[in-house]
Amino acid sequence: MTVMKPLLTCSVFLVLIAGINTPVFAHMTDKLWLNNYVLTNGLSGHLAIFSISFLFVGLGGPRQVVAALNGYLYGIVFGLQIALLTCILAACVNYFVANTLLSQTLRRTFPKKMNQFQQFVRQTPFLKILMLRLFPVGNNVLTNLLSGSIGVPFKPFITASLLGYIPQTLIFCLIGSGISAANDAMIYASILLTLISFILTGVIYRDHIRQRIAPLKMENHS
């Protein structure tokens, strides 16, 4: 633990400095510029875009932008894989930075928010994290940081994150690649996944409400 803290701190600062010193970060939403950058720089260009995409998501940038960008640059199938890898790596780093470096600071600064989140994920953390990932509106980085700081088990956190990222990532990869470039199976799959994500979100939220109401009913009957 004593080695991990300074190592993580140095790594975060190095990544931030690298991101500031590259033109890729300033052109994250300019797909034509990025396409020319990749054609000009080859492998180093691909690695730079991947690194800056990771930094972009890790600092709170919309993962939908990264999904659309990868869909445009690499097509639907490979773009989906790269976008998911980017988001999962960013989630892991956020989680472990919060767990290792920021836990006490976050507890002192946001005690109410931390307590609310802890109560929310206390039972069935996998389903609760999955609901947050599937829900179209939410703060991706905040979920990562809160999960790491309160010690949500890593396995349900990361598996729920991966599954929850898939529907929106696929949709925005399709948008980035151009719907005309997608085959019918991909389009139907994205629609089906979207419907499933809305249904799952509703079911999980309903169960969460029932869990909160159950103790009140017990008190009324006693």
N-to-C order of helices and strands: HHHHHHHHHH
Q: Compute the gyration radius: what is it?
A: 19 Å
Mean pLDDT score: 78
Protein structure class: mainly alpha
Report the β-strand fraction as a percent range. Answer: under 5%
Helix content: over 70%
Terminus-to-terminus distance: 48 Å
Low-confidence stretches: 1-5, 214-221
| Largest sheet properties | none
Quick recap:
Helices cover 83% and strands 0% of the residues.
Structural features:
single chain, 222 residues, mainly alpha, 10 helices, globular, disordered N terminus
Written account of the structure:
This protein has helices spanning 4-20, 31-41, 43-58, 63-74, 76-109, 111-121, 125-134, 140-150, 154-177, 184-221. The longest helix has 38 residues, at 184-221. The chain is globular, with a radius of gyration of 19 Å. Helix 4 packs across helix 9, helix 5 (76-109) packs across helix 8 and helix 7 packs across helix 10. The protein contains 10 helices and no strands. It has 222 residues and is mainly α. 83% of the residues lie in helices and 0% in strands.
